[in-house]
């Protein structure tokens, strides 16, 4: 970027910085969303909560269903396949 362009776009620097930060946050959120180890860790935490009785079975089942759906999506499994094989 040239000196003139840099000076003319200087007022936009906070906007560019905010956009850059938002993009980094989105990348991090997507990485965490599609991290298999994080999902399996959450499943283990749910098992521990089940054993201690901190959550009722309905809440645990709902959370497990969401986590398993995310895990299946990551691995490329679609319910239409029906044969249980992963892509």
Q: What features would you highlight for this structure?
A:
elongated, mainly alpha, 0% strand, 72% helix, 87 residues
Count every beta strand, where a strand is a DSSP E run of 2 or more residues: 0
Radius of gyration: 22 Å
Largest sheet: none
Shape: elongated
**Helical region count?**
4
Question: What does the model show?
Answer:
With 87 residues, this protein is mostly helical. It has a domain at 36-76. It has four helices and no strands. The protein has helices at 3-8, 13-33, 36-52, 57-75. The termini are far apart. The mean pLDDT is 84.
Short description:
Helix content is 72%, strand content 0%.
Helix and strand topology:
Blueprint: H1 3-8, H2 13-33, H3 36-52, H4 57-75
């Amino acid at each position: 970027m040239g000196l003139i362009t840099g000076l003319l776009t200087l007022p936009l620097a906070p906007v560019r910085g905010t956009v850059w930060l938002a993009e980094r946050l989105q990348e991090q959120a997507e990485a965490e969303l599609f991290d298999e180890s994080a999902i399996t860790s959450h499943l283990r935490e749910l098992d521990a909560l089940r054993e201690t009785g901190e959550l009722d079975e309905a809440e645990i089942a709902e959370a497990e269903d969401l986590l398993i759906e995310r895990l299946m999506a990551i691995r490329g499994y679609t319910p239409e396949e029906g044969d249980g094989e992963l892509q």
